[in-house]
């Protein structure tokens, strides 16, 4: 059956010039009908009618998304942030497929890999017979493909801290894991409030958060900083700090001159998997900022490197980033408190 699914999923090219690829939806629908013990003759009719309509009209219509079954048991995740949410609420046993980038928690590494963000293997996903696939709002192409092959899916948002909380709540509701969902949200809120209480009354500091740059070049180049519409900016606001970049872009590329003009008090350099992918020490990373020796953060030794895998994944572990950023901005407060 899996081989048949793969063969039928390949585009059918019509011989006349300018013809489009055949819409594969009807083929997958027929397969699903066959799997549900509908007679072969009926399945052939299911195939024939859409094919005739396609040949007459020159195009195929995408079906409406299938409804998500109640309390789904087999789940596929198309984003690390969603995978972490699923395991956090206690639904890890239901996860049968994840992306190549889903490496946390450790148990997620044992799940079937279905590809990356842009090269997901839809034939493999189909063969896994998931009850639902969870993906991000921005994965519009993936959502369209899932509609084509008749797989129920839910698009989620983890771009901001409120949306992370909402995603955890939504997953808890869909998977009947309300207790686990409420527990993790309560834990996250408690840790946020603990940090906020520690830094209450601390002086306001101006912060630049670097979220990506050309590493290992021996200098400082292609620096991208987090803007106002990001969860990093929300974290700064929550601890009473100011994001030095107030432009309209979510993530903006900054020149040396621009950074010098912004004159941050603190620079936080986010480099996920620092030791494994970049293979530099935090001290070596900090040294690359010395080219901006007149910037207050560099001059006063207030460049902090965060190199853990979670720093760029907007899932439940955002609270670790939040705590790390708070310590970097107000080290004296945490030294006293701890």
Distance between the termini: 60 Å
CATH superfamily of the largest domain: Nitrogenase molybdenum iron protein domain
- How does the helix and strand content classify structurally? alpha/beta
Shape: globular
For the biggest sheet, the summary is:
6 strands, mixed
Mean pLDDT: 83
Structure report:
This protein has three domains: 56 residues, no CATH class; 115 residues, 3-Layer(aba) Sandwich (Rossmann fold); 136 residues, Nitrogenase molybdenum iron protein domain (Rossmann fold, 3-Layer(aba) Sandwich). Helices cover 43% and strands 13% of the residues. The chain is built from 15 helices and eleven strands. Helix 7 packs antiparallel against helix 8, helix 8 packs parallel to helix 14 and helix 14 packs across helix 15. The chain starts with a helix and ends with a helix. The N terminus is likely disordered.
Q: How is the secondary structure organized here?
A:
Blueprint: H1 2-9, H2 25-35, H3 40-57, E1 75-77, H4 80-88, E2 95-98, E3 112-113, H5 122-127, E4 132-136, H6 140-148, E5 153-156, H7 161-174, H8 178-198, E6 206-212, E7 223-226, H9 231-238, E8 242-243, E9 251-254, H10 256-262, E10 266-270, H11 274-278, H12 282-287, H13 296-299, E11 303-306, H14 318-329, H15 331-337
Parallel strand pairs: 1-2, 1-4, 2-3, 4-5, 6-8, 6-10, 10-11
Antiparallel strand pairs: 6-7, 7-9
């Amino acid at each position: 059956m899996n081989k048949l699914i793969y063969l039928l999923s390949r585009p059918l090219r019509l011989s006349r010039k300018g013809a489009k690829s055949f819409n594969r939806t009807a083929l997958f629908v027929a397969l699903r009908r066959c799997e549900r013990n509908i007679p072969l003759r009926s399945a052939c009719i299911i195939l024939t009618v859409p094919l005739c309509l396609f040949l007459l009209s020159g195009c195929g219509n995408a079906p409406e998304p299938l409804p998500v079954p109640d309390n789904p048991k087999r789940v596929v995740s198309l984003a690390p942030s969603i995978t972490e949410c699923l395991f956090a609420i206690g639904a890890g046993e239901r996860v049968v497929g994840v992306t190549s980038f889903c490496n946390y928690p450790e148990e997620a590494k044992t799940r079937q890999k279905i590809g990356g963000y842009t090269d997901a293997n839809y034939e493999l996903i189909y063969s896994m017979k998931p009850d639902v696939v969870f993906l991000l709002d921005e994965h519009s192409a993936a959502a369209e493909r899932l509609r084509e092959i008749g797989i129920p899916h839910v698009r989620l948002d983890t771009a901001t801290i409120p949306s992370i909380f909402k995603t955890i709540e939504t997953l808890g509701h869909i998977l009947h894991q309300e207790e686990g969902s409420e527990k993790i949200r309560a834990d996250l809120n408690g840790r946020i409030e603990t940090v906020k209480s520690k830094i209450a009354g601390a002086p306001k500091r101006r912060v630049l958060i670097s979220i990506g740059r050309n590493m290992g070049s021996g200098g400082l180049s292609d620096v991208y900083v987090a803007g106002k519409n990001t969860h990093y900016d929300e974290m700064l606001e929550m601890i009473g700090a100011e994001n030095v970049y107030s432009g309209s872009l979510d993530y903006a590329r900054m020149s040396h001159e621009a950074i010098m003009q912004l004159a941050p008090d603190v620079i936080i350099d986010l480099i996920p998997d620092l030791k494994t992918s970049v293979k530099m020490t935090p001290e070596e990373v900090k040294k690359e900022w010395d080219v901006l020796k007149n910037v207050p953060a560099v001059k006063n030794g207030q460049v902090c490197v965060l190199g853990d895998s979670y720093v760029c994944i907007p899932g439940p572990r955002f609270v670790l980033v939040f705590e790390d950023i708070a310590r970097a901005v107000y080290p004296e407060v945490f030294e006293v408190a701890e």
